[in-house]
């Protein structure tokens, strides 16, 4: 379209005539042309005298000037989309993809065709690239690719299903082991509770027997203490009597 032509021209003017890419660190010559700094300095090692690749004018040593303003413009252009509504452009060169490389099976622009990647390949106009007997080849290749991907997906699904089955088996095993452990500990707990009740009953019986024995022994001791207390009181009473009365039954008193 008419609106797209100036934009395309601006895009082309922002590219290096040597590498055909957007200018990187652009420098300008006295003759007014601009190049990537890396591209133009590489020319110094190739030729004895440096000439402008665009007009062949002599370039004085040290005459290359950095063009920061152009660098800013190129950076802005990199961020813009110059693609027309229905036209496919080369993402590398911004040219129309009107050629077809039969070796790599991809659409290319004229600059791609001249590049080392495709220079030795068979390249045809896009509208002549696929004769009728070959028109179905891309579709067949795509179908083959889809079949391959489906096969890979089926394998992955099978692996996933097998993994889930193993996980379920491991889960069931852990549940069985958990139930087994719980049952064993319940049995052990019941056994310990029974042993506890038995030992506590035996201890209770022993305590009762000890208490009974202690009570019986205490009763007998208190009986003896009571008799002794009575005897002591009796003797103390006799000691307080007159001597004539005290001596009358002293023999019988001491013999008891």
Structural commentary:
The radius of gyration is 59 Å and the shape is rod-shaped. β1 (26-28) and β2 (34-36) form a beta hairpin. It is mainly α and 256 residues long. The protein folds into three domains: 1-82, Herpes Virus-1, CATH 3.30.40; 88-129, Double Stranded RNA Binding Domain, CATH 3.30.160; 137-244. The strands form two sheets. A three-stranded antiparallel beta sheet has the order 2-1-3. 58% of the residues lie in helices and 7% in strands. It contains seven helices and six strands, in the order αββαβαββαβααα. The protein has helices spanning 4-13, 37-44, 68-78, 110-114, 137-239, 243-248, 250-255; strands at residues 26-28, 34-36, 65-66, 99-101, 106-108, 123-125.
List the helices and strands and how they pair.
Elements: H1 4-13, E1 26-28, E2 34-36, H2 37-44, E3 65-66, H3 68-78, E4 99-101, E5 106-108, H4 110-114, E6 123-125, H5 137-239, H6 243-248, H7 250-255
Antiparallel strand pairs: 1-2, 1-3, 4-5, 4-6
InterPro entries: TRIM/RBCC (IPR050143), Znf_B-box (IPR000315), Znf_RING (IPR001841), Znf_RING/FYVE/PHD (IPR013083), Znf_RING_CS (IPR017907)
Domain RING-type: 16-56
GO molecular function: zinc ion binding
Provide a compact summary of the structure.
The protein has 256 residues and is mainly α. The chain has helices spanning 4-13, 37-44, 68-78, 110-114, 137-239, 243-248, 250-255; strands at residues 26-28, 34-36, 65-66, 99-101, 106-108, 123-125.
